[in-house]
Structure formats: structure tokens, C-alpha cells
Known about the structure:
The structure is a homodimer.
Chain A: E1 2-6, H1 12-25, E2 32-36, H2 47-61, E3 66-76, H3 79-91, E4 96-100, H4 108-113, E5 116-119, H5 127-145
Parallel strand pairs in A: 1-2, 1-4, 3-4, 3-5
Helix pairs in contact in A: 1-5, 3-5
Amino acid sequence: xxxxxxxxxxxxxxxxxxxxxxxxxxxxxxxxxxxxxxxxxxxxxxxxxxxxxxxxxxxxxxxxxxxxxxxxxxxxxxxxxxxxxxxxxxxxxxxxxxxxxxxxxxxxxxxxxxxxxxxxxxxxxxxxxxxxxxxxxxxxxxxxxxxxxxxx
Amino acid sequence: xxxxxxxxxxxxxxxxxxxxxxxxxxxxxxxxxxxxxxxxxxxxxxxxxxxxxxxxxxxxxxxxxxxxxxxxxxxxxxxxxxxxxxxxxxxxxxxxxxxxxxxxxxxxxxxxxxxxxxxxxxxxxxxxxxxxxxxxxxxxxxxxxxxxxxxx
Lengths: 152, 152
């Protein structure tokens, strides 16, 4: 499994949290994170330009993986539904690649290429917080799929 | 504004994150956190017993505040909707009290007493993560209501 995100991880507590989940995930799943350069600053550049840059970067990093895009307007799922989505996707034995956009969101081309667009929440979170939430839900999925208890 | 939650904050990175937002919120809003003892262990006790205990504890801590309950089955809102909900609620000049349940969720009495039930996500998060998300959204609301930029 891979997660690709745009913009750097600046917030220390989130970094610590992410490292923690990556470590916990090890017995279940090999997860790699790929940080891509943000498409630019929205004050100086047009949203579309930023989205195009991020589209190019993402498509370059995409090989044979199944692309899943995180987007506020995507499908909302319960944790159990998310776990069973992961389980089904794994049957194809293709690697999953989750992509988290920058603050402009993804270009429509990216959403079109995605097998699935998932919404973690209707609320807006920073890309850093979205990454933390996603990785926590992946960990929760592994616990659900293995029938293990997890509630802290 | 107050946030009441059940069960302790065990995870250090979440604690750090919460402290960070509380500090950032200071210029905008006085926010106090109240930790209540969890109603019990779901392996040993019935869900209803736990919910009843947490109901008693919550109602005891509730004075004249407007109760808002966080619940997966609650209303989902965008961040802008959440901000305008906070703004409207403040016009009544009553203090807002947000309540986050333990892993059994709240007793129906609690939901009935609430002025509003809000869902942060259809996905399940730990009470710790829910607290972090809520406080981040409160901070985001303050930035939105003050027309300030915030995207990290």
C-alpha cells in the first residue's frame, strides 16, 4: 500500500502520530509514504495551474497501482465499509495507492483516473490531518479484518 | 466553550496536538476541557450500564450550557456550516458544551437533551482522535469567522 500526499509534513505531533501508525501497521501491511512537492501557492498562482502541476507529479509516480483519491466530495464510508473495500481491492493483488491532494484539491483528470474517491469527512482538514486520519483508518481496517479489538 | 470527553488521553502525540490548538485558540475563544471517567469496560459490563454511568456524569457536569453531542449518526456539516452553527449559537450568549462519548456511544437520553448532534465523519475514530478533530475544527471555525487564512 502507498500513500502519496502533496506538501510537506510540518507539524511535529502529526509526524509523530503517523510514525506510530506506520510502525503498528508493520505486522499487517507494508505501507510506504511518498511526499510530493505542492503545486504552488494559491495566492500567486491560479488554482488550475496548481492542480495541473500536482496532476503531473501524481501521474508520474503512478505505476500499476490502483488509484484511490481522497476528496471531500467523495463517497463517505463507515470504518467497516472502508475495511471491506480494502479487502476487496486486495483480491486483485494490485497495490493500492491513496492520494491526498493539496489545499486546491485534485484536478478532475485525477478524479477520473481514480478507481474510487473517498471522503473522510464533509469537513475540511489540512493535508497533514487527512494523512493522519487515513493512516489511522487503514490501521483500524487491519484490526477489523483480523477480528482484533481496537478502541484507543 | 467547553468540551467534555470520557476516558483518559493516553496518546502523547494527540495530547501535544490538543495543547497546541488550545493555545492557538486563546486569542479567539476560551476553551476548557473536562475529562470524565469512562463508564466502564465493555467486556465486563453491559453497554447500557456504561451509557447510563456516562449519562449521569455528563448531566452532573452540565449547568446552563447548550449541549452539543458528537455522534457518528449525527448531522454531517462542512467546516463552513460548522463555523456558522457556532456563530449562531453564540448569539444566545450561552456557553457551548461539546460532548464526546466513550466507545459505547451516548445513551439516547443524552442525544435527546442535545440541541444538536454532529457527526465529524461516518468513520469511527477513538475518543482521543475525535477530540483532536473537534478542536481542530473549532480552531478552523474561528479562522473562518474572522476571515483569516488557515491551511496547514
